[in-house]
Amino acid sequence: MKYLFILISFLLSVQLSLAAEKEYVLQSGDTGLSIAKDGKRLSLQTDDAHYLSLNAPYVVTLEVNAETLNGYYSSVKEEKGSLVCVAKLKSTHGTVFHVKDVFTPDAENHFRIDREVTIDKTGKGDDYFNSYFGLTLQRKTQINDFEFFVPGIWYRNNESLRRGSLASDYTDNYFYFREDRLPLPLVSAREKASGLAIDMIHLNANPETFYGENGVNRIVDERMQFGSLGFTETDSHSILFVFPGIEGETTYVGRLPEQKRKGFAYRSHPVKAGIKHVYSLTFGFNQTKDFPDLVETVWKQAWNKYTPAVHKVDVKDAYEASIEVLDAYLLNLNGAPGWPFSVYLPNGIARAYNYQMGFIGFQISNAYFLLRKGLETDNKEYVRKASEVVDFWVNNSQLESGIVRPWADAYVDRKATWRDYEAYMRVTGGGMEGMMGAWNTMRKHGIDKPEWLAYCKNFAGWLIRTQEKDGSFYLRYDWRTGKPTHDSKYTTTNIIRFLIELYSATQDKQYLDAALKAGEFSYDFIHHDYLYVGGVIDNPNVKDRESGQMAIYAFLALYDATGDAKWKEAAIQAARYTETFMFAYHVPMAANDTLTDFPKDVSIVGQTLIATGHSAIDNGLAFSSFQYYRLYLLTRDTHFLEMAKIIQNNTLSIMDLDGDMRYRYRGLLTECFNPQSNRGHSVRQQLPWNQASILEPMHRFMDAFGEWDIDVIEQWPMKKRQEMIERYARTQGLEKE
């Protein structure tokens, strides 16, 4: 037996020695990248997974004139801890492609590839090409074996995605995403059974394109320097990068013919000498305990590769410019005062005067901001005009039951009328928070407005009577009947902060109890299930960024009221999710486009995707700078501090503070624009929420610190900052009734 063991050990060592003679191995942590010395095998392996190159046994894959061209490395050399690999692939038309790949260990369990493709010889008849780099798992799998993370697009699974959305259809085999619609150019997939996640990040991406690069028909142009990242899900699982970027088999790029529900938007480089076809990727594994852990880990890895910069803005100047806009557009039409639903840009002409109390209308909150400015500067005209807005809502919108009518139309020649538009939790919650702010600022200046607080109490009473046994609220209610008109409960978070604020002001425990019941529901069905859905109520009821923001506000408020660590945990998870909608690398405007609404010399970093299902972006994360700074103070995670600074400053870059965009007022800004198709072109309108997004967090900073600039606050001792934020947490910045 002893000799048998010795023999087996000897044979094993010989086998390993022979293997070592046949391949080069790079090691990073527990993961090995091996390339055969004859160039005919590329393998990525860790204990729980074994991947080979895309289209193995081949190690290099190109696509030339829509036909696959595979090949091997003709040369593999070790140089200073890297593997330098060269392949020469010849097409059927005689074009010779020279591919140089340099592999290097990167972060733990990760490797880097630097690829350059040049053309040694062009063959007549070859017009265009793409290159691929990918890895395929060496066992059979199904798509439901994995949880996916593609920022702004794919979170865990395909639940709560509208039909036609990227990643919504699990019968697809190909999931290729243009990187210029990704807030960071990364994709990752986590195997549920093992927790092992593979990821791929495009490094140093500069996704350039040109005006006119639209539509699903193939476009061949060397000015396209963006890639696509994604997966193929057939009998097994592959992760890959395509350059330039092809999108499909679902795409938002143009319209497919009616008879084709699916397809690809092909983008290729021309086959010609001197073409620039260069990119770098990092790829590898992370062992993760759950999906939220994956999101945090991979997002931070990519973030640290790109280190997004803060573009400092004069916060006080942005504040004053925003107040100027509120003053300029406030109009009283036959006893119905308010701000126009939108303002055209750049001429600044008001489109229509109709009033939504919260969400995109933000009438009551904007009144609070102007009122506060008036009280703090003894501007009686501001106080008068803003108070009229608040009184309009208090005196006209609420029914006897306590429910409110959230949207009014104002007219020059007659009294305002109320739309049938339902009472959404998102709209009413925002309106009530504005009312609490208005009541509070008057109270702080010695003016009592009990009817304003009674308005909030009456609505909260209706909420308590309406609340479901499981603690939830429905998405919306018919204000005429008080009955729900939609079965979704995912916006239950939207009303929690208001209830906590009302409790803080009144110390009436029924409001805290209702908030806690709503919180328990939200913890179980939103936090636990990682389903942040429905906050963008003018979109389909889908996963979106704003639901994440609403969850942060709700869970932080509950933590303030109770000190229970589970609410802090939930707020942190919601913040990690929400930030992945924010562009953290620069997507340049189209090189030949002189008519973009987004400034061509300004970084897109800080602007955020709004929801899944499209790629429109806005400055809506501006609302949340205060909460991210709070999370930094709670966790000491400096990543949250970086986020808070970017949000506070970079989101203001679409204002016309320097006057270069020639808007009628410097404080105007466009509601949303596109980073991909027709880059930088916008709706050319501002809505009232845009002003609120600038002003709301400033007032929360002032309530907590008496200062709104994070850079100034950061100069103070940590003990002082902690004491100030703890005092804010106890009161929510509110006076007692």
Automatic annotation (TrEMBL):
<protein>
    <recommendedName>
        <fullName>Alpha-L-rhamnosidase six-hairpin glycosidase domain-containing protein</fullName>
    </recommendedName>
</protein>
<dbReference type="Pfam" id="PF03663">
    <property type="entry name" value="Glyco_hydro_76"/>
</dbReference>
<keyword id="KW-0732">Signal</keyword>
<dbReference type="InterPro" id="IPR005198">
    <property type="entry name" value="Glyco_hydro_76"/>
</dbReference>
<dbReference type="InterPro" id="IPR008928">
    <property type="entry name" value="6-hairpin_glycosidase_sf"/>
</dbReference>
<feature type="signal peptide">
    <location>
        <begin position="1"/>
        <end position="19"/>
    </location>
</feature>
<dbReference type="InterPro" id="IPR012341">
    <property type="entry name" value="6hp_glycosidase-like_sf"/>
</dbReference>
<dbReference type="GO" id="GO:0005975">
    <property type="term" value="P:carbohydrate metabolic process"/>
</dbReference>
